[in-house]
Amino acid sequence: MRNSYPPSGFGGNNIDGMWQAVEELRSRFEKRSGTRAGRGEVRSAILALLAERPMHGYQIIHEIEERSGGSWKPSAGSVYPTLQLLADEGFISAEESNGRKIFSLTEAGREEVAGAGSSPWGPSEHSGAAGFGALPKAGVELAQAAAQVGRTGTPAQVQEAVKVLNDARRRLYSILAQD
After folding, report:
1. In which domain, by residue range, is 99 found?
2. Half-sphere exposure (Cβ direction) of 150: Cα atoms closer than 13 Å
3. For residue 76, what are the contacts with CB-CB under 8 A and spacing of at least 6?
4. Is residue 140 a contact partner of residue 19, using CB atoms and an 8 Å limit?
5. Which of 72, 144, 148, 160 is most enclosed, with most CB atoms within 10 A?
6. Based on the structure, what is the number of domains in the chain?
7. Tell me: the pLDDT tens digits for 29-57?
8. Does 27 lie in the same domain as 55?
9. First-to-last CA distance in the chain?
10. CB 73 within 8 A of CB 19
């Protein structure tokens, strides 16, 4: 499909480079989605969530996905066994309500959470900042917009887009340079 577009604007083979960049960003974003967490991360995420309020298993899965910006969605096969383990350890209890088990922290669970320190999402997630998955997604969307300008824009529009992208690249590097 990429060879069906005229090479205008980006000077021939440069359109292939643009598509390669789009595909690289897309693959990085897709790999982050649904990634596996390290050992103990599901446990700490569940404890952190239950410290806020009682929840059932599906709510826990949904909250983890939402707070991680979509970059982590644990499976039921990792959440429910962890819930059972936490119950066996005495950190949570379960009550039946409307056909669902609602999990909540016990006193021992509250002590465990207090000793753990920060939540798995860090302070920025609690303040409503975008999750880690937002950066690659924004990059993919930017690359798609740049490719659209390259395919359909006039030479003047393409040159303006190049200036915008160069400025964005410099500004991104300046973020890393800040301390």
Report:
1. 41-129
2. 24
3. 57, 61
4. no
5. 72
6. 2
7. 554 444 555 556 888 899 999 999 999 99
8. no
9. 43
10. no
